[in-house]
Amino acid sequence: MAPNPVEGLLAGAVPDLERSLRFRVQRQGVLAANLANADTPGYRRAELHFEDALANAMAQTDPRHLAGASRGPGGHRVEIEPPSRSPDRNGVDLGQEVLEVSRNAGQFSQQAAVLARLIALARIAATGEPR
Amino acid sequence: MKLGDVSDIAASGLAAQRARLAVTASNLANAETTRTERGGPYRRQDPVFAAEKVAPAFANALDRALHKVEVERVSEDPRPPIQRYQPGHPDADEQGFVALPHVEIVEEMANMIAAARSFQANLLTLAKVREITDAALQIGR
Lengths: 131, 141
Prior knowledge:
The structure holds two protein chains of two kinds. By secondary structure, chain A is mostly helical. Chain A is built from three helices and two strands, in the order αβαβα.
């Protein structure tokens, strides 16, 4: 029997999208903290890097081990940048940070829209009629 | 970390920048003040910002990286008052000099513009949190 195309669609793309959406929300928090501290002397900029399953498998040789100290929920890598050399030792560039906040939110919206369409497609396939 | 935490962080930024704006306004308003409660001319002030951890030390790496901002204290500018020769002034000394606060109008204006910019940036974070919430609510439709 041929595999169910709807099942394949949901099983393949939905968990990836969900993981990506979670990452976007987490990254928004890191960027918000950078922006709030754009004028705090000595603040070190933080960044969240998306890590794929392979990188996680490499970092964690046994699933029973604790995740690395620099990893947040979802296994994404948290990076605290080295102290800046600017006079107030603050590494945040307001313009760059604003750009990243906008871009990150935009990517969330795009991925959320794709997920919404996938669910709509699955609904059509299941019921045989568009809503 | 929840989306609400992102709003809290942005709100702390708004509060800090608003406080900075208030201190700048106080400096500008008192640029010519020669009498204060503890005597002498007004002394220029500066807010001191400090990063404040959102989560306890045992939280995961992401939560430990999150910092709100707070106004730790308001520091006093150590620069001595400016002596201006104005013999007619009621607070002039025997030589005719008046001690005036060391407030540079240009410096305060630059500070005010920077505070307004940072305030706007935190406002943008709040707007984007709303955008994310709206997009998330569309998923189930």
